[in-house]
Amino acid sequence: MKSRFKKISHLLLITMVSVLLLTACGQKENVTSKTKESATSTEFKKTTLRFGSTSAEGSVVVETMKDFADRVSKKTDGKVVIQIFPSSQLGGVKEMTQSLQLGALDMSMTQPASLVDMGVKEMSALVLPYIFRDFDHRWNVLAGEVGNSMLEKLNNSKLKLKGIGYFKDGARSFFTNAKKPISKFEDVKGLKIRVQPYQMDSDMVSALGGNPTPTASSELYSALQSGVVDGADQPIAGYYSGKYYEVAKSLTLDEHTYNTLVVLFSQISWDKLEPQAQKVIMDSWNEAEEKSKAKILSNEVEVLKKIESEGVKIIKLTDRDKWVAAMKPVYDKHGVGFEDLISKIKAVK
Q1: Over the chain, what is the mean pLDDT?
Q2: What is the pLDDT of residues 88-109, one digit of tens each?
Q3: How far apart (Å, rounded) are the C-alpha atoms in residues 141 and 164?
Q4: Closest C-alpha among 106, 132, 101, 6 to residue 48
Q5: Which of 170, 240, 227 has the alpha carbon at shortest distance from 193?
Q6: Nearest 5°: phi and psi at 310?
Q7: Contacts of 4 (CB under 8 A, 6+ apart)
Q8: I need a labelling partner for 264 at 20 to 30 A (CA). Which of 51, 192, 289, 337 fits?
Q9: What is the distance between the alpha carbons of residues 281 and 75, in angstroms, rounded to a whole number?
Q10: What digits encode the pLDDT tens for the residues 167-199?
């Protein structure tokens, strides 16, 4: 009897230990599962950010913005949502920049020249005429140390703006009335060239021998049509989408400046984001921007074909050295104090 009792007791003990072990394991798994679930659910707060642009729906700029928004959404399991507002739905560049400073808007883009006017003087180096040798040179400059240092200058200012990257669009070139084509440096002399409302643009045209004529973008087509101006400048895509080829059928690919946009974040909005969300946003923009490079280049090739089919005379410079040399007074005026920065830009391969 004693032997049988011992066997039963032994079996009960084994059973109890097994039950306890299984219960402990189950509790451990539940704790681990809950911990993982908790980490996933709290890693990103639900946030909706608004990203405004003056660029039109279907443009490479807006397509890149959408790609960026998709990447952010996927990396945050849909917690961080970027809403895209193209075609100046939220106002012009100036209005959107002011909204960023107030925290009423989260993201937008602006040209370096507008930031120069706001006090970030170093940005003027990015819009000096002919400072970039070609598309790849400009891309490498902004993707490297120089581009990052420019953003740091902005971020350390008191503008309440956070620069998170760039959109590196194509080059701006001159186009003119078919009767006044620009085939060489001397052809610019005396031409009335529409310029943007930036002093550097006016100084550039003056240095080339032309007459800078500030004109609102909304009035440019009619100004070309009526002869108020003989020509203007635009990126290739802008020249085509604006249908300027209808009234200015000579396009000179001098590529004096590259249409660079600085991607801005409201500092107020940025500070509300947790660090991991900030990193996702930075990484996602860099990835979307890198992907846009091939689109920008292939788009230019396609647009040039369309422009040619419209009967436009496309001219490539053979005397670019003259154009570059003529910019000395522009550099002497707008590059003062940034000589080292200019040298660094020119040294980039």
Answers
A1: 89
A2: 999 999 999 999 999 999 999 9
A3: 16
A4: 106
A5: 227
A6: -90, 5
A7: none
A8: 337
A9: 9
A10: 999 999 999 999 999 999 999 999 999 998 888
As a whole number of angstroms, the distance between CA 84 and CA 90 comes to: 10
Instruction: Give yes or no for a contact between 288 and 67, defined as CB atoms under 8 angstroms apart.
Output: yes
CA distance 199 to 257: 14
Task: Please tell me the distance from the alpha carbon of residue 204 to that of residue 329, in angstroms, as a whole number.
Answer: 9
Q: Which of 134, 133, 111 is nearest to 124 (CA)?
A: 111
Supply the pLDDT for residue 198: 84
Residue 174: name the closest of 132, 136, 212, 140 by CA. 212
Kindly state the tokens that stand for 264: 């801005």
**In this structure, are residues 271 and 338 in contact, taking their beta carbons and an 8 Å threshold?**
no
pLDDT at 255 over 80: yes
Q: Using alpha carbons only, give the angle 13, 15, 20 rounded to the nearest 5 degrees.
A: 95
How far apart are the C-alpha atoms of 57 and 283, rounded to whole Å? 24
| Residue 288 vs residues 64, 87, 111, 212: alpha-carbon distances, Å | 6, 20, 19, 36
Tokens of 342: 């200019």
Q: Would you place residue 241 in the very low, low, confident or very high pLDDT band (cuts 50, 70, 90)?
A: confident
Both tokens of 16, joined, read 């109890």
CA dist 212 and 204 (Å) reads: 9
Per-residue b or e along 81-102, where b marks 16 or more CB atoms closer than 10 Å to that residue's CB: ebebbbeeebbebeebbebbbe
> What predicted TM-score, i.e. pTM, was given to this entire model?
0.82
